[in-house]
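ugh ok fine here u go
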Amino acid sequence: METILVACETIRDEIERACSELGLNHRVLWLDGGLHNSTERLRARARELFGEAEGNCDRLLVALGYCGGGLSGLSTGNYETILPLADDCLTFLLGSFEARMNASKPVTYFLTEGWLRHECGLLASYRKAASMFDRETASFLNHKMLDGYSRLGVLDTKSFDPEKVARMVSPMAIDLGLTVETLEVDRAWLRDFLTGPHDPGRFLILPPGSRLDLTLWNKIFYWPGDGGEGGHGGGG
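structure:
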């Protein structure tokens, strides 16, 4: 079965590492990470890629989560479509909703090298504020950006050097009164996404010509949790 993969540039390291380990050579259509800042732009680009896959594959793997409803309203082509049943790529990379909940205590802003590389990422925003404003104003804005967080969590996805990323963000963390910690992840969800089996409890498995409606993701909004889930600024 011919497979095409649609994925966000912010998790490119993780996708390429997993494909290499699994011996896969899927054609990959990349989405710019900055599209997550605009639902309409994300939807428009995804529509283009869905159209590009038409007639060129039997299966389309879409490595995106709910992502603020960015895929809502789109229709698939003459191929089976599979998506992780996740709220965003953070939960997807961590391996489960439970892992996300557990890793979010204390309240954590999650990072990978891919998210930091993005021009709208956390470190870029911190540096931009420092270059544009006086120290007092920049400090105020950066504290507001991370208001409520107490830790920066570097996800060790085995796709980059987590110690290098920790060193990169340490000065910012000290300035803002945050701790930095490297966190282990379970890559089984990502690997199963690329190879199967595709458990309907963890994946949306859609026949050709399906419409992506928000209700498809309903169940993900009822996962156990008591608030205070961690977040990130770059991924989808």
